[in-house]
Amino acid sequence: MNDCIFCKIVSGEIPSHKVYEDNWSLAFLDIAPSSYGHTLVIPKDHFENIYTLPDETLARLALTAKKVALAVKNATLCDGVNLIMNNEKNAGQIIFHAHIHIIPRKENDGLKLFPHGSSANEELIILSEKIKEQIKD
Ligand code: 5GP
Ligand code: ZN
User: Fold this and answer.
1) Atom 17 (ligand 1): residue with closest C-alpha?
2) I need a surface site. Which of 9, 28, 29, 107 has the fewest CB within 10 A?
3) Which tens digit of pLDDT belongs to each residue from 17-49?
4) 97 catalytically annotated
5) Could you read off the pLDDT of 55-85 as tens digits, one per residue?
6) Domain annotation for the chain: domains and CATH numbers
7) 101: CA distance to ligand 1 center in Å?
């Protein structure tokens, strides 16, 4: 992917502050952090989002995210960590090379997460059936 910023970070064409690397994945500091220690974990190969990530790559990514999340927690002395993955534009994805955000949290840090709504039990029954029908192996 010639125009992909994250591919250029993998190749070294664009500089980054790397914190971890293995054969499949790379972790580096976010250039515009939501909090102190905000880190991104990406596959080295280009895949657009979670839908197209091969299973093994996704599994490796998850293992890297776990390893790096703990390191970020210990390094920043945060009290919690959010792991977030934006998939597609309407979910906030700006860079279309799959990535997991590691966002350190502290008490009263002012970061807002998703608001909660409400739902009727009937609605949840119908919805859970709809989703179950769409589960593919
Ligand atoms: P998205 O909204 O696609 O889930 O998140 C993309 C993230 O990449 C953003 O948090 C943004 O700050 C970060 N980012 C964008 N360009 C660069 C860059 O050139 N270097 C680094 N380190 N992070 C970047
Ligand atoms: Zn890419």
Assistant:
1) 31
2) 107
3) 999 999 999 999 999 999 999 999 999 999 999
4) no
5) 999 999 999 999 999 999 999 999 999 999 9
6) 5-134 (3.30.428.10)
7) 9
